[in-house]
Amino acid sequence: MSGRLSAEDLPTGHPGWDFLLGATPFFAVEADPRFSYSLYVPRRYRALDRPLPLLVAVHGTGRSAERTRDSFRDFAESAGIAVLAPLFPGGIGDPNDLHNYKLIEYQGIRFDEVLLAMVDEAAERWQLDTSRMLLAGFSGGGQFVHRFTYLHPSRVRAASVGAPGRVTLLDDESWPHGVGDVASVFGSELDFDALGHVAAQIVVGADDDGSALLAAAAADPREARAGASRVERAGALAASLEAAGVPVTVTVVPGVAHSSEGVRDAVVEFLAAQL
């Protein structure tokens, strides 16, 4: 049994509430302190008096976890939900790495299981409904979100996948290009029935080209088949999900390039409709 202090342990007026409502500090994950997480908890948490739905908002390559968390604070307050923002530091297992968390597994590190440990710990501190979560991620975060959803569809109510540069299609190619060897990589087959009950959004700016940035990856034919730009890759991912029976909302935002802020309203509108 953890010695973790729960919000329910604090009397009204206790100064500890200042750290448990609104934007919280980052907490190290007990199972692996190399990783940490923060939440945004509505200020009216105690008045709601119910388990809060949970949105997991995943940072991109730049690791701006606080900004990712705070971009959903108005949504958290208005909808009465909690937002959990994980921090997957760069350089884990490789001092020069910035990308491995997006692929879920690296040298025995299971970033999906790290996230689930964060969720479990948070649920011991606050009243949260973590049975089926909302997920959102943009760019590198979008990569993580769709791959996590493949592996844990029963834990996901809805997933907003924003402008991923690299995508995993639901075909027989090897991971992370496809899912043909998922059983050998992760120890279990994909649950397509459960995946069909996840509401998915693929969202991208209409001007989000990114072809120059993606050119090196696209030299690999397994990458090139998904398209040369983020818009094309978003379309390929959406088509792959639809073919697998996953309900998909495709949102292409006019006049927006590679900007999480530019697509934020569309993401919030989608997520709010799933509550």
Assign a percent range to the helix content. 25-40%
- Write down the secondary-structure element order: HEEEHEHHEEEHEHEHHEHHHEH
Domain module count: 1
Q: Report the mean per-residue pLDDT as an integer.
A: 93
Poorly predicted regions are none
What is the name of the CATH architecture? 3-Layer(aba) Sandwich
Give the class-level CATH name: Alpha Beta
Report the biggest beta sheet as strand number plus sense, adding barrel if it closes: 9 strands, mixed
CATH homologous superfamily caption: Alpha/Beta hydrolase fold, catalytic domain
Q: What is the terminal separation in angstroms?
A: 32 Å
- Tell me what portion of residues adopts beta-strand conformation: 15-25%
What would you call the structural class?
A: alpha/beta
Number of helices: 12
CATH topology: Rossmann fold
Round the Cα radius of gyration to an integer and report it. Answer: 18 Å
Number of strands: 11
Which descriptor suits the 3D outline? Answer: globular
Quick recap:
The protein is α/β, with parallel strands linked by helices.
Summarize the helices and strands and which ones pair or pack:
Layout: H1 17-20, E1 22-23, E2 27-28, E3 36-41, H2 45-48, E4 52-58, H3 65-70, H4 73-79, E5 82-87, E6 105-106, E7 109-110, H5 111-125, E8 128-138, H6 140-151, E9 156-162, H7 182-186, H8 192-195, E10 199-205, H9 211-218, H10 221-224, H11 230-243, E11 248-253, H12 260-273
Parallel strand pairs: 4-5, 4-8, 8-9, 9-10, 10-11
Antiparallel strand pairs: 1-3, 2-3, 3-5, 6-7
